[in-house]
Amino acid sequence: MLEEPPENPSANPEDITREKAKWPSLPAPTPTPMLPPAPDPYAAPTRDSAWSPDRSYPGGHSSSSRSRDSAAAASPDFVWSDARLRTTYPPWMPEGRALPVERKMRFGIRLGRLARDLIETVILALLIFVGVRAMVQNFRVEGSIMEGTLHDGQYILVNKAVYFKVDLGFLDILPFYDAGDNPVRYVFRAPRRGDVIVFRFPSQTERDFIKRIVGEPGDEVQVKDGLVFVNGGALDEKYILERPNYNFGPEIVPDNQYFVLGDNRNNSYDSRSWGFVPEEDIVGRAWVSYWPFSNFGLVSDPSVQPLGTQGESP
Asked: Is there a contact between 235 and 306 (Cβ–Cβ < 8 Å)?
């Protein structure tokens, strides 16, 4: 490293000039760019005094911003950055505005979260709908076949779960349990006399009918003298529109089948015309009437038992 000779204040100026001429010229120092201090990445976000919305490009910059511009021009590796926000800002962009690429990334993240929430909501709604549909279903009454209890155009909810069945045959592996000859059991109860049921029409299963159960498996059913007799006893039916003006039977209801009649006995296409309803064709029990609202309430299906004997009115 070259050093300049010491100057002697008492020496002759000509001697000093002559002495300096013997030493080579030193190179001019390279100016160092004035870089802004590195921000603290853990500091709380505060407004940077070097940037403000009123100093945006085009327009005048403050002395601090002009010094940054000169520093950027002097050093090609100079990067305008703010470590607190983990983003990069050019000198003409006001504080707090992200670059287009970063805005697209943030928008993509928000859009992805929205899509995920939407898919989860749709799946949950479908599961709830399928679960409710498996237990309850709505139907519309058509015609006057059930006048006395239900009317034309009335909407009802049908309880499909009440007649659910389960096969307990798989429990035969247990040494202390015997499912018996008929391992199929009702979860709640079997259809019974007096229930208003919705069922698939035996000869056209795509059609749904609604009737009232009058005869259970093994019952003897007969209609005569304006009364319905079951196992020799007349039924006390306060729900019918009028007494039947026809005769039927007697007939024995086969196993796993049911004898059904409409409450409008003289204007109903029912078991006296086309036969019995197989148990597997029953959809469910009429439960609640919800429209029109004036008819809102539980559907009347009292348990009907024979009261009188042949030839006696109940």
From this structure: yes
- Is 207 contained in some domain? yes
Q: How many domains does the chain have?
A: 3
Q: Is residue 17 part of a domain?
A: no
Q: 157 and 264 in one domain?
A: yes
H-helix or E-strand containing 158?
strand 155-159
Do residues 147 and 211 share a domain? yes
**8 Å CB contact between 257 and 217:** yes
Quick one: 108 and 256 in the same domain? no
Contacts for 230 with CB less than 8 Å, ≥ 6 apart: 193, 214, 215, 219, 220, 221, 306
Is 223 in contact with 247 (CB distance < 8 Å)?
yes
Is the dihedral angle over the CA atoms 88, 94, 98, 103 positive or is it negative? negative
How far is residue 204 from each of residues 199, 207, 214, measured CA to CA in Å?
A: 11, 6, 22
Q: From 136, 154, 183, give the residue that closes a domain.
A: 136
Q: Where are the beta strands (DSSP E) in 83-145?
A: 87-88, 136-140
CA gap 149, 300 in Å, rounded = 7
In a domain, 116, yes or no: yes
32 belongs to a structural domain: no
Domain that holds residue 56: 40-97
In tens digits, the chain (314 residues) has pLDDT values of 444 455 555 556 677 677 666 665 656 666 666 666 666 655 545 544 444 444 444 444 444 444 555 544 454 444 444 444 444 445 555 544 555 666 777 777 888 888 889 999 999 989 888 888 878 889 999 988 898 889 999 999 999 989 988 877 777 677 766 667 777 788 888 999 999 999 999 888 889 999 999 999 999 999 998 899 999 899 988 888 888 989 997 999 999 999 999 999 999 899 999 999 999 999 999 999 998 888 898 887 776 777 654 444 44
Domain co-membership, 83 together with 103? no
